[in-house]
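In response to reviewer comment 3 from the previous cycle, which asked for concrete evidence that the modeling workflow produces usable outputs, we include below a single protein chain processed end to end. The sequence was submitted unchanged, and the resulting structure tokens are shown without manual editing.
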Amino acid sequence: MNTPVNTLEAYRRRTVVFSSAGKWLYPLFELEAFLRKTRTPRASLCVHDKVIGKAAALLLARLGIRRVLADVLSQSGRQVLDAHGIRYRAGEVVERISCQTEEMLLEVSDVEEAHRLVLARIEALRPGSVIQPPPELRQPPSSGPA
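The workflow returned the following structure tokens.
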């Protein structure tokens, strides 16, 4: 049996307080739910993520995370971290990450707008997802065939 490898871990004083083996941006939403539930001081955390592109960087900034470690960090993700005063260390910095979400957020700098757009993408990819977008981005129920 294979043990899942964590893709995201949050540390507080060198102790793992949260981990996820999820894919894409889902671990950041899981971290958000954990932080809301536990009221863990966000500024005291260091988050280690395997890949941080612009979307992940914007979501981390929105969460109030002040320190991050990345195995791979994109240039646009780096720019977001710099703009928000987030300290970081990366194993490798790459020009870009081949990801539709990174492309979608190319011109976005507002963390709340990025959050709304990612939630809308989640809904588009997985209707019925437990992560619901804000009401203004939800599709109205279909009234059936005309």
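The mean pLDDT is 86. We consider this sufficient to address the reviewer's concern, and the full set will be provided in the supplementary archive.
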